[in-house]
Amino acid sequence: MGSKYTRGCCGWLIVALVAALVATAAMFAIMKRKPGGGGKHLKPLPVPGPPGAIDSKYGDALGVALQFFQVQKSGKLENNQIPWRGDSALTDGKEAGLDLSKGLYDAGDHMKFTFPMAFTATVLAWSVLEYGDQMSAAKQLDPALDALKWITDFLIAAHPSDNVLYIQVGDPDLDHNCWERPETMTEKRPLTQINKKSPGSDVAAEAAAAMAAASMVFKSSDTTYSDVLLQHAQKLFTFADTYRGLSSESYPKLQDFYNSTSYVDELLWAASWLYHATGDQTYLSYVTVQNGKTYADWGRPTWFSWDDKNPGTQVLLSRLNFFGSKQISNAENEGLKSYRDTAESVICGLIPDSPQATASRTGGGLIWISGWNSLQHATNAAFLAIVYSDYMLSTRTAAVQCSGKYYSPTDIRNFAASQANYILGDNPMKLSYLVGYGSSYPQQVHHRGASIPADAKTGCKGFQYLHSPDPNPNVAMGALVGGPFQNDTFVDSRDNAVQTESSTYCWIYALEPIGLDPLMGQQSGSPLAWPISTRGTTTSISPVLLMDEGMRGFPPHIYVGGARGDDSSQLCRPSYSRCYSTRGTVHA
Ligand SMILES: *[C@@H]1O[C@H](CO)[C@@H](O)[C@H](O)[C@H]1NC(C)=O
Ligand SMILES: *[C@@H]1O[C@H](CO)[C@@H](O)[C@H](O)[C@H]1NC(C)=O
């Protein structure tokens, strides 16, 4: 019943991937129009403009994928749009005098695990920071923010004092012993906490990362909430760093679910986010000078996942190296360079015809690392690829070098698009692995709520619905199932949890940046080139990249064609990694 760790698949990955790909369509258009223009690998491509016209394929996928957060919601629902879902777990946390009713159920079960849930929040926040403009253009920003806050509200409640964090709600044995809807569950839901005596640096640091990233997301819309998140993040990081240990050592039972291999990757990840959120130099020094050599595994590319945050940290810190800042010391810059070099190795491993290309792929071209949750690595990798390619575009970086061969941002985006397209149906099974998307998608998702009719009275033992040969009565909208075998096949059976379970931590986040172009005023469905580049104005201008003094991070303030404060300059307010003119240029 999917009680092993690395269960289900990763819904949120798809969202970021799709959003990212909205822009890809635009790049393709550029390449077609100007054969060889920028395609010769060594000439930098134009800086992207604002989101282009929505590619309806990806825009629709984004809308579907985000619904999975609603499907997974615990607590008293607000504006619920999933007809078969209702309030549940309202008394979670009561035994500790806390309200832990919010948060998201982990997968096809009703456990709430803080570790993967916080990871979901961190990457969701990251994708909003990078691609919020694309999400907004596709009218999907509000659902993303709503989902993010549903998790961060839980994290705030789960951190009642400096050195205490609740890391689990529910007992996996009791939970997996039942097949029932969350709305009707009656079994006990005990709490598990980490503290000074029973530490869990992996979970505490991931929660710190999530809250630091989310504090940036909410900074402009809700300063108070953003400040609260940042305070929690800083305290959790101190707790994680001071009282070190793995949560699965404190609680060996956790090994059967999310058995984190190490906590130092989470410490670096959290400190990197805290540096972006605060600009406090001590966090930068922590990840570079103090701990980089010992912990960061420079030079060794790995797979980004709920367990291994290193590749995420490498790409995130590349951002600082790409955009630069006067306040960073030489020693720190050297550390950043090592992170970026490792990020580049990760990217080189993904591009299919690169000399460093990983052999871990299916015949259909999907990155494939493990049988459980096979889609998680593909979506995670695609997300990092698209983010990295956007950093390159924004800084007019022409190419990455992989053992002597050069690859442009377009090559990197093509890889990301290939993963998204595979997941959305361009695969040997001709099946969309995103439930609710397209004409053919899995009908037997391993998911308690989706498999039981909303009016059924099952008690704990509704296992006839697990074993039934019938399609689920309810559609688990936005669920990204575990995914195909390495031979590209998929068996759509509820009992086959390895392939048909979907997990909250694995969500299609990389779908955002696949474009929309409000300035061009075009109808949706027609991919267009970035406006700036099509006007031919930016190709001759080198953007001057500056970091705002007060905010070393998102967004970098990018100025095109002049120095900061120079009246003649064309201010490019990048939406995070993207840079576009706020006046003049587009209508030149
Ligand atoms: C959990 O991870 C630890 C350390 O990597 C390993 O020794 C242990 O065998 C793992 N437990 C399970 C159940 O896989
Ligand atoms: C594909 O791989 C799975 C898992 O290894 C195996 O059970 C199945 O028989 C294979 N299918 C084909 C058509 O080779």
Give structural notes.
- By secondary structure, this protein is mainly α.
- 41% of the residues lie in helices and 7% in strands.
- The chain is built from 19 helices and ten strands.
- It has helices at residues 12-33, 56-71, 114-137, 141-157, 172-176, 201-217, 223-242, 247-250, 264-278, 281-290, 292-295, 310-323, 330-350, 374-394, 409-423, 448-451, 463-467, 497-500, 531-535; strands spanning 10-11, 112-113, 165-169, 191-194, 400-402, 405-407, 503-513, 543-546, 557-560, 570-572.
- The strands form three sheets. It has a three-stranded antiparallel beta sheet. A three-stranded antiparallel beta sheet has the order 8-9-10, with no helix packed on it. The chain has a two-stranded antiparallel sheet with strand order 5-6.
- β5 and β6 (405-407) form a beta hairpin.
- α1 packs antiparallel against α2 (56-71) and α9 runs parallel beside α12.
- The longest helix has 24 residues, at 114-137.
- The chain is globular, with a radius of gyration of 23 Å.
- The termini are far apart.
- Residues 1-9, 23-41 and 512-588 have low confidence and may be disordered.
- The structure holds 2-acetamido-2-deoxy-beta-D-glucopyranose (NAG) (2 copies).
- One of its GO terms (molecular function) is cellulase activity.
- This is Endoglucanase.
- The active site is at 446.
- Its EC number is 3.2.1.4.
- It is an enzyme of class 3 (hydrolase).
